[in-house]
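Working notes for the structural subgroup meeting. M.R. asked for a predicted model of this chain before we commit to crystallization trials. I am recording the input and output together here so anyone reviewing the notebook later can reproduce the run.

Input as submitted:
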Amino acid sequence: MRRIEIVAIGALFGAVPVIGCFLAGWWISVFFLVPESWIFLYALAGFLVGVLVDVILLKAWIRRAYSMNPLVWMAVYLFYSIGMFGFFMGVPVFNVLLAVPAGSFVGGWLAQSGADSTRMKKAARLVAVFTTSVLALVCVASASVALASPSTPSEIQHMLGLPFLVTPAMVIGIILCGGALMLALQWWLALTSVERAYRCLGARPSPSTSA
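Returned structure, recorded in token form:
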């Protein structure tokens, strides 16, 4: 495994317990109705627990990254998708970017396992299906929130600086067109990321091309 892969996988895996434990500490403080001045201490305690988990387990996770059950990486992807959706307050635009690390990881795994180009293309399609399906669910959730809020048309008008009133029909049109564009971009990014990582990290030629 190359150094760039170690760093990238370490960052992707290592951030999960840190972010997860930080948020867990934060929400535990809210659940138990602790004084407001203590909320930060609970969140900090969660953050430190996440760091401790990384210190103990991260090296082993990195070594086993390419041999892990794909469900583990799918869960990691879902974690980041939910986190991105919440961080940007229900705006799904930035979720599209998650196709890049997902595709790059799969491309690196295929290159290391010596997969041929036929297998690579099949795996790239599976990555595109999965990541685009997750984005579709995120878009549905975002659209539901937007359509349920009566202030959405005025918010769009002010955000884009439009000189005319935005109607509910326009909001639906923006959702449909914007969602379709994001899904298409997600699909392309997933396919491209798998192929680029596969090529850059030293894939073997397929038997058909080497014959």
